[in-house]
Amino acid sequence: MRINGSTVLVGVIGNPVKHSLSPVILNAAFREAKINWVYTAFETPEEKLADAIGGIRALGIAGLSVTMPHKARVCSLLDEISDSAQSLGAVNCIVNDAGNLKGHNTDGDGFLDAVKHDAGLDVAGKKVLVIGSGGSARSIIYSLGKAEAREIAVINRTKNKALDALELAGSVGRHVEENEIPKVVSEADLVINATPVGMSDTEGTSSFPLEPNLLTKGQLAVDLIYHPISTPWMEALRDREVEVHGGLSMLIFQAAKAFKLWTGKDAPVEAMRKAALDEIEN
Ligand SMILES: NC(=O)c1ccc[n+]([C@@H]2O[C@H](COP(=O)([O-])OP(=O)(O)OC[C@H]3O[C@@H](n4cnc5c(N)ncnc54)[C@H](OP(=O)(O)O)[C@@H]3O)[C@@H](O)[C@H]2O)c1
The whole model's pTM is what? Predict the structure, then answer.
C-alpha cells in the first residue's frame, strides 16, 4: 500500500515502545487486507499521556494500542471503558469513534483464541492453573472466568497479588499453597506460565516457572513468553511429551482483536504471524 492523503493512522503508545512487535504485526495485517492504514509507535512519557490522548482526538488518529506503563492510567482519560477493561483496571486498545474514545482490553480473549487455534482447546469446563499474577495473568484469569472454566488455580511468588487476581476469577478461583502444587498440577487440563521466568535476559538467574516433571503426557501447557520462541521450560516439557505452545499466538490474536475493533474486518492472522516470526528470527 502507498501512504497518501487518505491513509488512516493508528499506533501503539508506551514507554519504552521502540522494541514493540506490534508495528510489524499490524502493518503486515493492513498490507495483507489491502487496507490503507498505517501503524506506528509513539514513545510517550507518563507526564505527556493526557496531551497524547488529546492528540488522538485532535488529529483523528483512529485508535491506539496501549502498553506499559500507561495501561492503568489511561482509563481515566477516556470517554468509555469496556466491561473487561473496567474490571481489570487496564486498557490495551483504544477506539476513536468520531471523537468518542473507548478503551478495551483484548489480552485475555486473545489468549483464549490462541489456545483454541493452537491446541483446539475450549476452556469451558476445564481445570486451569495460572503461574503469576501480573497484568497478563489477570487478563487471562478474567477471561477464563467469563469462559466458564471449571477451576482457575493460581500460584504466585507474592501471595497477596495472587489473592487480588483471584477476585477476577469468580467462584471457581482457588489459591494454591506450596504443598498442594503437585496435586493441582496433575489435575490441570491447562497450565499457563504468566511470569517472565525463562526469557532470554533472565536465563541463568532463574530456573523453570514450575518443575516440568510435575506434568505428564496428555496435559497442555502454554508459556506466554514469545521471545525466545521456545523457552527452557517448553523444551523440558516437550521432552516429557507434554503438548506446549509459546506466547506468540496470544500476541497475534490480541492484535487481531484490535484490528477487528478498528476496521470491523477479520484479521489475516497467518500473515501477521509470519511477519512477527520473520522479525524475531532475523
Ligand atoms: N504473549 C503475549 O501476548 C504476552 C502478553 C503479555 C505478557 N507476556 C509475557 O508474560 C510474562 C508476564 O508479563 P506481565 O505483563 O504479566 O508481567 P508483570 O505484570 O510484571 O507480572 C509478572 C509476574 O511474574 C512474577 N514473577 C516475575 N519474576 C519472577 C520470578 N523470578 N520468579 C517467580 N515469579 C516471578 C511476578 O510475581 P510477583 O507478583 O511476586 O512480582 C508477577 O506475578 C512476560 O514474560 C511477558 O513477556 C506475553
Answer: 0.96
